[in-house]
Amino acid sequence: MGRDTFYVTSAIPYVNAEPHVGTAYEIIACDFIARYHRLRGDHVHFLTGTDEHSLNVARSSAEAGITPTEWVDRMVPKWQEVWRRLGISNDDFIRTSEPRHEERVQAFVQRLHDRGEIYLGTYEGPYCPSCEEFKQEKELVDGTMCPIHGIPVEVLKEENYFFPLSKYQERLLALYEERPESVLPDFRRNEVVSFVRGGLQDLSISRSGTDWGIPLPWDPKHVVYVWVDALLNYATAIGFGTDPEMFDRIWPADLHIIGKDIIRFHAVIWPALLMAADLPEPKTVFGHGFVNVGGEKMSKSKGTGVHPFELLDHFGVDSYRYYFMREIPFGQDGNYSWESMTERHNADLANGLGNLASRVLAMLGSYFGGTVPEPVVPGAESDLPAVVGDALRRYDEHMLGVQLQPALTAVWDIVARANHYLVEKEPWKLAKDDANRDELASVLYAAAETLRVLTVAIAPIMPSAASRLWAQLGQGEPLEDQRLPEAGAWGGLTVGTITAKGDALFPRLDAA
Ligand SMILES: [Zn+2]
Questions:
Q1: Which of 93, 185, 262, 467 places its Cα 20 to 30 Å from the Cα of 368?
Q2: Ligand 1 centre and the CA of 26: distance in Å?
Q3: What does the pLDDT look like over 160-195, one tens digit per residue?
Q4: Where are any strands of DSSP class E within 109-239?
């Protein structure tokens, strides 16, 4: 962990468009991870924010006849509203137009300049305005188009300040070799390694001809290249240059979660900038895949984005968050559809966890007046404690390895086993004869105890449903105060606790 903090970040999106399902996907993954680390007792710092010094912002605002500042001030609340509805628990939100960011970016580039890591030069080459990046001729499609955006590149010639990226080739290759976890998943690291082996060009880190950006302290006719400006948010937000105590406590980042399209910025340029500034590199850069609907990337620049509210309104926040993390192996591209969301909601949530909760709480209500009975028959719990223990161990292992899909599969193994346990024990039949009262009490204790542990386990992915279930289970201690592995230890449910069946957690949804 950072010096003593688990520091996780999302990429900071451009604010020149509305949030879409793809950007929501990334922030949900970050939130799941951040909440999981809090659950295991780590001190977490979860950062997100917005990237505002884009050329596209300057263009969009000019088209709208307002200033760039007015434009971003209108856009940012739209993003924050989506994050709020998704239940995102970020500890900080940085806007790159904030004074705290601007002054610390200037401190960082001044440090590079002072260390002889910046020189003046000219550069001419093909430039994609959507990537905000000079391209190499060899990567253009048909010699004229951006390989990512499929739009024509522009030829830009500028006198700029350069960062000598090329001289970091060997140090970067040594980093990937010595610390393979520095870029994940493995197949993305392999792509990065072969890119770096192919040779690196020095990086133009300033732009002239615009005043939308952060001026270089020693030559204010130039503004800092937006990508360097954006990458630095990870350092400026935690006090680089002004709050060394905070910075040293939190840096280096444990986990930068980013889309695969910006892996080179994060796994090549960013560590090289940090090396040049004599700062530690991030521990892990994780490049996730794209989320596709109907086979086409839901990209804002293609105008086919689906707004998360359309899905949130129908499926609810818990089902939404669960679906994307459970359906798509994190790191790979994946597809989603309305039909598949409905199927998974009904199978895993309505029939799985929701059915387990409603059956257990209803039987506690009918047979014991809602009070958790004492388990008096040895062995009545069958293998549930072992199943729970094993699943929580796998859950932890997968979460620490950023394998979010198998992590949830492990938790849902508990759901499946607990539902099957009820089918085996048939408490509704035991309840017909008073002679079985002790057995019935022991079976329902075991089922309710399993439900208690499950509630703790699902809190990072479904915070809203977990808190409702926690209340139905009559738990007085705040759910946020629970810690794994302690709260996963069998027998934590207090005999005599008063439970109450509430509304269904996950009402079934009609097939579309
Ligand atoms: Zn592009």
A1: 467
A2: 20
A3: 999 999 999 999 999 999 999 999 999 999 999 999
A4: 119-128, 133-134, 154-163, 183-184, 203-204, 206-208, 215-216, 219-224
